[in-house]
Amino acid sequence: MLSAFLVESTKKFNQLYQDKLNHQHWNTIKAFSLRMDIGIDDFRMFTPITDFEDKINDKIKEYISKPISWEEEVSDKLKQQSLNNIKREFNKLIIDFARSQIISMPNEDWKTAYMYSGRESTFKRKADIETILKKSVPPLASSENFKEFKDHVKQILAKAIVNCEKPDIAKLV
């Protein structure tokens, strides 16, 4: 069930970056790849960590707003407070995951994308960046690394729930 929510958010993320890459000057894209290579979260309109967090949080909010069950009978107000706590905790944890997925793990790939020069370098750089982002945030449930990506997000959500755990927390995962 979580897969459907993730596929939609990862597709939106990748489409956003495909559009951004297609509408920016080559020098801006090169500067963006340099920032990613040296571990800086963003450059001008390129904010992949924030954009990832935004896209995934939209869908996770939908997912957790309808828990399978509650361990105890609780008021609607307490249910809402519990869900809000989980959302906040998830948000904190997902940012570190995003930095790891998008910047740290593909660091050598960012370096390669930045180092292109000369004829056709803009096209190679754009293609490499799109590949990095699709590998980091897989847009298709059928892709090789989507299952691993989904499992990581599921673990983060489970950890957020455990971190907020009280007798009134819903069972979501």
Q: Structural class, from secondary structure content?
A: mainly alpha
| Assembly classification | single chain
> In DSSP terms, counting alpha (H) and pi (I) runs of 4 or more, how many helices?
7
State which percent range the strand residues make up: under 5%
The tally of beta strands, per DSSP, is: 2
Radius of gyration (Å): 18 Å
Shape category: elongated
What is the helix fraction of residues, given as a range? over 70%
**N-to-C SSE series?**
HHHEHHHHE
| Overall tally of domains | 1
Please summarize the sheet with the most strands.
Answer: 2 strands, antiparallel
Instruction: Indicate the low-confidence ranges by residue numbers.
Output: none
Mean pLDDT: 91
User: In what order do the strands lie side by side in the largest sheet?
Assistant: 1-2
Distance from first to last alpha carbon:
10 Å
Describe the fold and architecture.
This protein has 173 residues and is mainly α. 71% of the residues lie in helices and 2% in strands. It contains 7 helices and 2 strands. The chain has a two-stranded antiparallel ribbon. Helix 1 packs antiparallel against helix 6 and helix 4 packs across helix 7.
